[in-house]
Amino acid sequence: MLSNPRVRAGALTLPLIAFLGVTFIAPLGAMLWRSVHEPLVADALPQTLALLEAWDGLAAPPEALYRTAAGEFQQLQASRALGGVATRVNRVQGGSRSIIMRTARELRGTAPASWREAMIAAHPAWGEAAIWGAIRRAGERYTIRHYLNALDLKQDIQGRIVAQPQEQRIYLKLLGNTLAASAAITLICLALGYPLAYLIANAKPPWPNLLLLAVLLPFWSSLLVRSMSWIVMLQKEGVVNDLLVALGLVAEDGRLIMVYNMIGTMVTMTQLLLPFLILPLCAVMHGIPPLHLRAAASLGANPRQAFLHVYWPQTLPGVAAGSLLVFILAIGYYIAPALVGGRTGQFISNLIAYHMQYSLNWGLAAALNFVLLVCVLVILVAYNRLVGIERLRFD
Amino acid sequence: MLETADAHVEFRGVTKIYDRRTTAVQGLDLDVRRGELLTLLGPSGSGKTSCLMMLAGFEMPTSGEILIAGQSVRNLPPRKRGIGVVFQDYALFPHMSVSRNLAFPLRVRGLQAAQRAERVQRALRIVRLEGFENRLPNELSGGQRQRVAIARALVFEPSLVLMDEPLGALDRRLREEMQFEIRRIQQSLGVTVLYVTHDQQEAMAISDRVAVFNRGKIEQIAEPETLYEEPERAFVAKFIGDNNLLRGRILSAEGDICQVETSGGGGGTVSAFQVDSKQSSGTTVLAIRPERVALAPAPGTYRNEFDADVEEVAFLGDHLRLRLTVCGSSDFCVKIPNIVGHGTLLEGDHVRVGWGVTDCRALPDEGLLD
Lengths: 395, 370
What we know:
The structure holds two protein chains of two kinds. Chain A is an all-alpha fold. Chain A has helices at 5-11, 14-36, 40-44, 46-54, 63-78, 82-92, 96-107, 115-122, 129-138, 145-150, 171-202, 207-216, 223-234, 239-246, 262-286, 291-298, 303-331, 335-340, 348-357, 362-386; strands at residues 153-155, 161-163. Chain A contains 20 helices and two strands. By secondary structure, chain B is α+β, with helices and mostly antiparallel strands. Chain B folds into two domains: 4-234, Rossmann fold; 242-364, CATH 2.40.50.140. Chain B has eight helices and 20 strands. Chain B has a six-stranded mixed β-sheet with strand order 6-7-8-3-9-10, with helices on both faces. The chains are: A mainly alpha, B alpha+beta. The interface between A and B is medium-sized, with 17 and 26 residues.
């Protein structure tokens, strides 16, 4: 088999495939798995959950359930594992954590005759169905809860899928904001980058190299530095405001707020992503003979017609490649919104990071990630329909 | 000089200097007659393409004036000149089908779809490419692309068409075929064509007249036969066809005939037709066509008869090519048609050669042989 040169040549790509598998596909799979697989509660409260399974949810919970639950709570508390369980129940229904923790504290070391009364005495919520329903849901080993959550939905006590209360709907709006801002950034990049790319592709030496250097120069400094420098530029006492005030365009007390909001995010990201649009566009424009515009002129076309019918259509593969690159990079962008976005200029990635680092709700973070991934795939498919992915040229 | 009414295009003292340094065209005067196919022929860098680009409007003359139909075009942008241009690399628009390429000049002129379709069909018929309407340029062969480029330059019915080395990218067989094709189209439509090439055979094959360019100037402008038979400049004699060029000193001149002593020693005195009859002394360049030299002529046939040594014999199919030492030149070439076969002459043989006075032109010495 290895004597076949094509097989041997193909074997050279094996390290790359292995690398992709280890660094990309495996983590992606793990992430997806984590977004639907949540075994912690199920492993911690096996007997309680078995009893809850038998309970119809309408009648009063039986004494056996109280006894089993209290027993397992005490065990977990002893091994300091109860906090994690309570947190997960809390994610299903707010307030559950304090109920569980307080009850476990009060029951510590006791052995009452009626566990039911003791637990209700510790917290009256145990007399109602809600907390038991929450435990049962949190105990599901496989769950779509995180996806519902990511889409501003939830399951009510009867298991029906309903919208979150108005004040808790944040993810869809943020996703919408992210997509809209990314689209706007892409368009701004295109408007700024197209003429520059044309200049680079058509100027006389040494200008192309100098301009290209200017485009690439920012890459030589850290992403952080570039983002932070925009704070210097845009802040209230910053360069831009000073200039506007000095020119009398803006009153001293009317300095513009351009940073720590969406404007700051968009300005910064436009600058950071511009090279990703210019480079592929430049490559494509380089391949278009300047003779074509002369030919168009000799055939009677005015400059507008020559551009519209002859030049622009030939740059479309570059436009498509560049704007796709910028858009996909933008919707996953994290660092610029985190630094200069303030409260209103956040992207969905910042919330994912929040759930990874602070709320430690990795399941939800993974689900949000997957929603983002689906968005990208949908856009790719749409692009393919519109432009044809095989026509993209990055060379 | 021609009368102005006859001239379609006139260059009047046109000079083009690039970057204030490189002179591409120098004080050029040229008339292109209506309906003729005039070829600008010359080595690369001789200024012929610059002339074309200035006429098309892509370059501005540094000084001088270009007139089309008697009107100066100095302030006319390319798109308003109404000149069809066939570019060296065709410059077909790769994202448009053949018919959309052809319809482009009609579309920008605001023609209706029905009219466009009709004109496109007619143009395709002229270049014999019916049935290729929906192909993209990269689905065509080189020759077909060439035809599309020509059709596109003709489809809006210009009276003047410029062709810049249009056959440069084609192989020899196709090139010859297309030469006839271009000639046929030009004559059937009666358009004026200004044609640029560095290939002298191509120029001879298709042109009404040929202007030989050298260093931004026209050396000679004439019909192909005249250019070949009666070159007036050493450059033309060297550039058009093969020629033996011998440098010599004029001993005496009488009418059109002069006596020239060839340099290089060992040579005799050659009788030659003098192009510039005012010159009666000084150096000159003799031009003798290889096919006009006779081998072993009957004594007394020619005024010029010399002994020669055969240095080299090459068999080239339809003719034999001999390299001789004669009149002090060891690089004297003779062509004999392959009528009796070869083998009668061998390297090292001695042979007597001869040529007529009118086949030996004494041209002004411009230092070309240095």
